[in-house]
Amino acid sequence: MKISEIARMAGVSSAAVSRYINGGSISEEKKQRIKKVIEETGYVPNPTARSLRQQRTDGIGVIVPKFNSDSVSNLIEGVSTVLSKSGYLAIFGNAENDEKRELEYMRLMQETRFAGILLMGTVFTAKHIAFFRESKMPIVVCGQNHPSVTCVYHDDKGAAKEITRYMIEKGRRKLAYIGAIERDISVGINRREGVEEAMSEAQLDPSALVRAQVFFAVDDGYKGMNDILDGGYVPDGVICATDTLAVGAIKALQERGYKVPGDISVAGIGGGFAGTIITPALTTVKLFHRECGERGARLLLSMIEQQREKPDQKLPTTHTMFGYSLIERESV
Amino acid sequence: MKISEIARMAGVSSAAVSRYINGGSISEEKKQRIKKVIEETGYVPNPTARSLRQQRTDGIGVIVPKFNSDSVSNLIEGVSTVLSKSGYLAIFGNAENDEKRELEYMRLMQETRFAGILLMGTVFTAKHIAFFRESKMPIVVCGQNHPSVTCVYHDDKGAAKEITRYMIEKGRRKLAYIGAIERDISVGINRREGVEEAMSEAQLDPSALVRAQVFFAVDDGYKGMNDILDGGYVPDGVICATDTLAVGAIKALQERGYKVPGDISVAGIGGGFAGTIITPALTTVKLFHRECGERGARLLLSMIEQQREKPDQKLPTTHTMFGYSLIERESV
DNA sequence: GAATATTTTGTAATCGATTTCATTAACTAT
DNA sequence: ATAGTTAATGAAATCGATTACAAAATATTC
User: Fold this and answer.
1) Is the N-terminal amide bond of B206 cis, ω within 30° of 0?
2) Which of B35, B66, B106, B152 is the most exposed place for a label (fewest CB within 10 A)?
3) Looking only at Cα atoms, what is the longest distance across chain B?
4) CB-contacted nucleotides of strand C (7 Å)
5) How far apart are CA A108 and CA A97, in angstroms?
């Protein structure tokens, strides 16, 4: 079923049908006739033809570093609930934790003239920044913050500070920190700085903090904890950059016969699923991944609208920070 | 940059350029000229225009019931690694555990003339079956089995049988089963039947099995276990239809002061992440979600190829069953 | 070397919508 | 009543590729 067919059936030109659909001026009488035919036939305009003519698609690209992670899948869940109600189609790209693939996807999505890009960022290279600067596409980044692009992110430093403060309050003063790779600003650097700041404020010397720097898996937390202990340092409190790392750290401690939190407290950051099922239940700081995805998607949608109204104009960047919320459980 | 521009620069017609790209007959000399120009300009054909003319898109629809679940996100991971190497674009649709939305997506994807559909099925209604029967699109279902459509699924009954047999071997004879809603054939019915069969084969009366039927979340397993105990039945072994349910069941037991596995053994089915981090570590049967997604994607790709060669022909359905693998840990 | 088959080529049609443009019809204001 | 707006209309152009078709160039056969 195509538009010319509908036009024939309604006894009008295809231009009239197009105007009916897209809201051009048209007489009430024809409007009714066209409406009737469209309802009877269940006609839907061919999106490909429309895209070709209008020089844009109704696709929104969502680039994620991987799928099988708690925080990412909640973020996606949030994004997809918003987009599925919007008339746009979400196209997900799995960057496989590789910045180069991220860039490839961004370029592909720009070439394909997607309506916008939502990037769940990990590491920003100079090429990323250049892309943000040069591209006129609506782009939103979730989870990182950078002045060159619109971002929705968490107060990572604040969250880390909060959980550290809490641990110090609970009487732990000999701290260790298992952090993530520092090419990731949000998780790698900001959270560490939060820990250090909280220590300073409590008159503890942050340079005395023993740190391990690892990746993001349970095994990495496990290894990080063991490295610290093997180094001869036995803390009484361990902060981990993510809940997943904390799970690994607790496992390492328990294997060595330490009681958590009796001998050593452990805290995470994230508030994901894993922390709710381990023993002891993980004390952590909740971050709002799902909400972050929702907000990011909504923001992108409004940027796309804005651009529709004034094309060719570089969109201003905005920066939205989400807070956090301490979850007291059993591991501290 | 468009094809006519390339043609002008290479001093040929745009038909020649198109033939160069799509492999038509063309002289070696022009081939070189065109190649050079394309390389210099980095020209890529406009996919929208191509789709319009060829009456098909390079999109593959992937419909999932939700994103934030371990099994689903591994499946997606598998699917996306295969598709991202294929030249096709994966478009994910979140059906939000709603069969109606599943159908809506299927219809939308058919209208949009996607190259194929990969459905991570939950419940099949009569409308699903009708769609499978009538549609000429390449469709692959992951996780369920039905004769009317090509499926890649697990031996759910076998897996359930295996873990039950194992539990009986370990001396547990007073069993309970926490199962999932039975509108889901694979997880709801087949797994329960596997448990019952294993009991019969061990001369245990399956009708004596106490069952709870719940949804898929941790809390559902928790509730299911409590319901069984509140009914006055204290089993010595509990089989759960999924690992997630097992996590909830163990939590309920521990809260009531039972030792797992000392007093009561608990086993799951799935082999996901959750079972590796709880205490005691979950004894379970591994299912190959990631591999299932990979296989499903590859199969769909080959079906799409087949259809390219002989269009208008209904594709034959195939049925691929994956096995399982017992994981002995601590909960039995 | 003529007749025939095959390959190469460009022109123009095509996919299905939207949009420009020129024209006509219907109002408003004077 | 007339000039000047504004709204409604359909024919035709357009988006950027692929492809049917016919013509031209080349290769093959006898």
Assistant:
1) no
2) B35
3) 87
4) 7-12, 14-20
5) 17
Cβ within 8 Å, pair B91-A91: yes
From CA B68, how far away is CA B212, in angstroms rounded? 24
Pick the residue from chain A with its C-alpha nearest to B89: A91
CB contact under 8 Å between A218 and B276, yes or no, is: yes
Chain Cα centroid distance, residue B137: 18
Going by C-alpha positions, the residue among B297, B295, B322, B293 that lies closest to residue B77 is B293
My answer on whether omega of the bond before B47 falls inside 30° of 0, hence cis, is no
Give the Cα separation of B308 and A225 in Å (integer).
55
Q: Separation of CA A12 and C1' C28 in angstroms?
A: 28
Query: Residue B274 and residue A279: Cβ atoms within 8 Å?
Result: no
d(CA B302, CA B325): 28
Nearest CA in chain A to B218: A277
Q: What is the CA radius of gyration of chain A?
A: 25
Burial class of residue B312 (count of CB atoms within 10 Å of its CB; 0-12, 13-18, 19+): exposed
Q: Could you list the pLDDT tens digit for every one of the 332 residues in chain A?
A: 999 999 999 999 999 999 999 988 899 999 999 999 999 999 999 999 999 999 989 899 999 999 989 999 999 999 999 998 998 988 999 999 999 999 999 998 888 889 999 999 889 999 999 999 999 899 999 999 999 999 999 999 999 999 999 999 999 999 999 999 999 999 999 999 999 999 999 999 999 999 999 999 999 999 999 999 999 999 999 999 999 999 999 999 999 999 999 999 999 999 999 999 999 999 999 999 999 999 999 999 999 988 887 776 788 999 999 999 999 999 99
Report which of B70, B261, B118, B102 is spatially closest to residue B184, judged by C-alpha positions.
B102
For residues B284 and B328, is the Cβ–Cβ distance under 8 A?
no
Kindly list the residues from chain A whose CB atom is less than 8 angstroms away from the CB atom of residue B291.
none
In DSSP notation, A108-155 reads HHHHTT-SEEEEE-S---HHHHHHHHH--S-EEEES---TTSEEEEE-
- B68:A73 CB<8 A: yes
Collapse the DSSP code of A6 into the 3-class scheme (helix H, G, I; strand E, B; otherwise coil) and give the result: helix
In chain A, what is the greatest distance between 2 CA atoms, to the nearest angstrom? 87
What the block records as the tokens of A296 is 């990011």
Q: Give, in Å, how far the C1' of C23 lies from the CA of A34.
A: 23
Q: DSSP secondary structure string, B203-264?
A: T--GGG-EEEEE-SSHHHHHHHHHHHHHTT---SEEEESSHHHHHHHHHHHHHTT--TTTT-
Buried b (16+ CB within 10 A) or exposed e, A53-91: eeebbbbbbbbbbbbbbbbbbbbbbbbbbbbbebebbbb
Shortest alpha-carbon distance between residue A96 and chain B (Å) = 9
Chain D positions with any atom < 7 A from a protein CB: 7-12, 14-20
Helix, strand or coil, per DSSP, at residue B152: strand
What is the pTM assigned to this prediction? 0.90
- Sequence-ordered strand ranges (E) for A22-74: 59-64
With tokens 């649709």, the residue in question is: B93
| Nucleic strand C contacts from chain A, 5-64, CB < 7 Å | 14-15, 17-19, 21-22, 24, 45-46, 49-50, 52-54
Report the DSSP beta bridge partners of residue B213. B179
H or E, element range at B179: strand B175-180
List the structure tokens of A226: 């063991």
